[in-house]
Amino acid sequence: MLAAFLGAGGALSYAAETVPAAAPQPYAPFRFDIPPQPLSQALLEFSHQSGLAVLASSELDLTGESPPLNAEMPAREALALLLEGSGLTFRQVDGQGLVILPAPAGRAGRDRASAKTAEDGPYLDEVVVVASKRPTKLQETPMAVTALGDELLQERQIDGLFKLVRQVPSLEIARNGDHTASMLYLRGVGSDNYTEAGDPGLATHVDGIYSSRNQGSSAMFYDLGRVEVLRGPQGTLFGRNSTAGVINYHTARPEQEAFSRFGATFGNYRRRKLTGVVNLPVTDDWALRLAGASDEADGYTRFAPDSASAGASERYNNADRFGYRLSSSWRASDNLNWWSSYERFEDRGAGSLPVADHHTPVRIDTPGKTDLVQDTYRSRLEWTFDNGMGLTYIAGYSRMHRSQDWDGDRSGALGSETDPREYHQSNRTVWADHISRQHELQLKSDDDQPLRWLLAYFDFSERNDIRFDLEHQTSDGSGWGGAPAHSFQQPDRGSRLSAFYGQLDIDLPHQWQLSAGARTGRDRRYDRGGRNIGCPDLIRSDRGGELGQVAVNRESAAEGQCFVSNYNDVSQSWDSTTTMARVSWRPRPRALLYLLYAEGFKPGIVEDGGSLEGVYAGADDPRFRAALADLIATNNSDNPQARAYVEPETSTNLELGFKLGLLDGAMTLNGALFNTHYRDLQVSGVAVDERGFERVRSTSAASATIRGLELELNWATSLNGHLGGFLSLLDARYDRFLGVDNDFPRYGQTWNPSAGDTDIPDLMDFSGNQLKQAPKLSFGLNYSHSVTIRDLARLTSRLGVRYSDRVYFDEANRGQRSGKLRDNRTGLWVEDPNGPAASIDSQPAYWLWDAGIRIEPSAGNWWVELYGENLTDELVRYDVETPELTRPEFYLAPPRTLGVHLGVQFD
C-alpha cells in the first residue's frame, strides 16, 4: 500500500518511491468518514482511508471546501463526490492510482456519475514512473523512459525478455547456451561476457534490488505492476553497469482488497503455462499477495536418429520454468510502511542450443540438462517524518545455484564422447553458486517542495563459486593445448561496491527546472584461488569428474596427470565519480523539452591469468611458490598484454529530448536525439591462447560513438482503439579498435585491414565497424481495437509488427564467406575448407508479426484469447555460435507459435 500526502502547496508528496499497481481498487467499496474541510485535506484523508495513490498538480486550486462523506462506497464514486462542484475531475492512472485534472469546458457541476468517468472523448491514462527515484508522471519526467504497465503487459502477452525487446526502442537481445544466460543490449551497448567474471552492460533492478546475473527470475514475467526501461547512461542514481541504461521491474503490490485471478495458456509445441494471483487483506493495515507461474513447452530442435535419446519435452530449446512470489505490505502507522517479499525461481529446461535452422536435425551425444534454483528476499522500509522528509531502507539477498550439461559440438553421434577417434565437445557446469547482498539507505525531501534533494548510500557485494568442465576432443584424441578436457574452477571470485550518491532538483520561474546529481564510490573485483586445469583424458567419461592429484603445470605433470594451465589470482579496485546535469522547460502544460548530460561507469572485470613454465616438485616447492608470487604480481600489473583484468568502461551522453501531449490528451509523442561516447568499451570473446588453451578474453575497444534518434508514439485513436509504436535510428561505430578475430584468428584480413603491427600479424583494425546488436533502423507498431456486441461480449483484437535492419553479432562485421580466406602472415588467398556461406555473423533485415483476438463476456468474470506469434514463420537469429562451419549455427527466435490464453478473476 502506498500512502499519499497533499502538502501545503497542493501538490502530491509520496511517502514511497515505488508506486503500487492498484488498478482494481478504485472499483472496490471502502468505508469513508471524511468531515467537511479544505479539499486538499479531504484528498489526504481519502488517500489514507482507501490506500490509493492520488496525484495532483500544484497548479490546481484545492482550497475550496469539500462536502462531508460518511458512507461505504467504491473509491471512484467517493472521489467524484469530494470533487463535486470544484471544477475538477479525475482519471485512473495506468494501473497505478488516480490523477486529479481540470474538468473539460462545460463539465464543471455535472453529476458524479459523469464526473467519475471523464470520457468526453478518447484519452490516454497517465503513467507514473520512479525513474528519478521519485514518483513522477511519465510525460513530466525529463528522461528517455519506456514504461509498460500491468494492463499493457497482459494485453500484449509480454511474459519474457524476448517479447519485451519488441516494445522498446534500441533494445536487442542475445542468447548463450552453456550458461543459460540472456544478454541485453541497449543503443548498441551491453555485455557478451556471461561468466561469473563479467557484468551486464545494461543494469537490471527488481523492486529496487540490483540483479547481477543474466540468469534468474527476471527472465520470466508474472504479476508485474510495471516495467520501466531507462535509456542512456544512468550512473548517478543507479550506479554500476548502467553505461547503456537500466531496466526496472516493479512487482505488483498487495492490496487492501480480496481477489484472485488465474490464467492458462495452451499452444503448439505442447505449450502449457499456468499463472495465478491470490490477494488477501489480513487486517486494515496489512495485506499479503501470492503469485506464481509455471511455463512448459517441448523443444523445437529436431534430433537426428543416431542422437542420444530424448523425448520432445526434454529436447534443447524447450521450456520448463517455475516461480512463485509471496509479498507482504504493512502500514505500521501513518508514517511507517514495510513491504517485503520472498521469491523462488526454478529452471529445469534443456537449455538453448544454436542450430542452422528450425528444420535441419542435429546429432546430439550430450542431452541438455539444467538445474537452476534462485531464492531472493527483498525488503523496503519507509518512514515519513512530519515535515514530509522520507527515510527509506532497502535490503536484498539472493542465492542462485546452477548445474548444467550442454552439447558443444552438435555433430557427434551417441558414443562419440568416449571414442578417442571422434571429435567431441561437451560443456558442463558441475556447480555454480552466486550469492549477492544489497543495502541501500535513502534520505530525501518532500516531493512537494520547489527545492527537492536526495542523499543515499549504496552497498552491494557478490561472491561466486563455480566449476565449469569443458571436454574438447579432436579426432586424433588430443585437444586444445594437447589436453582434450579442461576444468575451470573459481572457488572465490566476487565483487564489492560501496557508493554515495545524491540529486538536486530546483523548480524555477516560467516552468524551468534544473537538476544535478553525482555518485562517488569504489568497486572491487577479485579472484582467490581460481585455476584452469587441463587433463589428458576426458573428465566425465574416464574419471567420473574426479581429477585426482593435479600437477602445478604441464611440464611438471606425470603421464596421464591433470595439470594447472592458468593461475587466475587477481584483486583490483577502481574509484569512480559520475555526474548528471539537466535543464528542462515546459512551454505549455502538455509539452516538455530537456537537455541532459549524463555519465555512466562499468567497473573493470577479472579474467583468466597467466601460466607457469618450468619443472617443479609440487605445490610445496619453494621455487614454485616464488614463481607463483611473481605470476600473481604479473596478473595484477599494468601490462595490458599480461595482466588478468580489463580496465573500466565509461560513457558520456548528451541528449536533447521532448515530450508532447497532443489531441487534447489523446496522443503523446516523445523523442530523444543523443550522442553517446564510450571509452574503453569492454568486448569479450572466446579465444585460444599461445599455449593452445581456450579462454574467455576481454579487451577494451579504445573508443566508440553512438548517435541516434528515438521516437515513441502513444495514441488513443478512438474510445475503443489504441496505437503504440517506436522508431529507432542508430549510428553506432567503433572510433578506434584493434583486436584479434576470435573466430578466424589467422585469416582476419579476409574482412578487415591489418593493424600494421609486424610483431602481431593477427592484430586487425576494426575501427569504423558497426557495433554488434545495433541495427541502423528498427521500429515497432501495435494496434488494438475493441467492439461491444450488444450486451453479450466485448471483443478486442490486436496486431503487432516489428522491423529490424541488419544486425551484426561480431565486431569483425564479416557478413559472409566467399570460399577464400586471406592469410594474415603471407597475404595470400587460400581455400576456405568449409566453403562459402551467407550471413555468417549477422541477421538480415526482418519483420515479425503477432496477432490476437480476445473475448470477454459482459456478464462473466472470465476471458479467452486466440493468439499467434511470428505469424510468417520468419527465421530470426539472435546471436551466432559458429560462423566458421559449412552451415553456421545461430541462436534462433522461436518459429511460428499459435495458441489460446484463458483467464478468470474472482472478487
Task: Name a few traits of the molecule.
907 residues; mainly beta; five-stranded mixed beta sheet; 6% helix; 50% strand; disordered N terminus
Describe this structure in words.
Helices cover 6% and strands 50% of the residues. With 907 residues, the protein is mainly beta. It has a 22-stranded antiparallel β-barrel. The chain has a 5-stranded mixed beta sheet with strand order 10-15-16-13-14. The protein has a 3-stranded mixed beta sheet with strand order 4-7-6, with helices on one face. It is globular.
Summarize the model shown.
This protein has 907 residues and is mainly β. It has seven helices and 50 strands.
Provide the structure class: mainly beta
Percentage of β-strand residues: over 45%
Low-confidence stretches: 1-26, 105-119, 685-689, 691-698
**Proportion of residues in helical segments:** under 10%
How far apart the termini lie comes to 18 Å
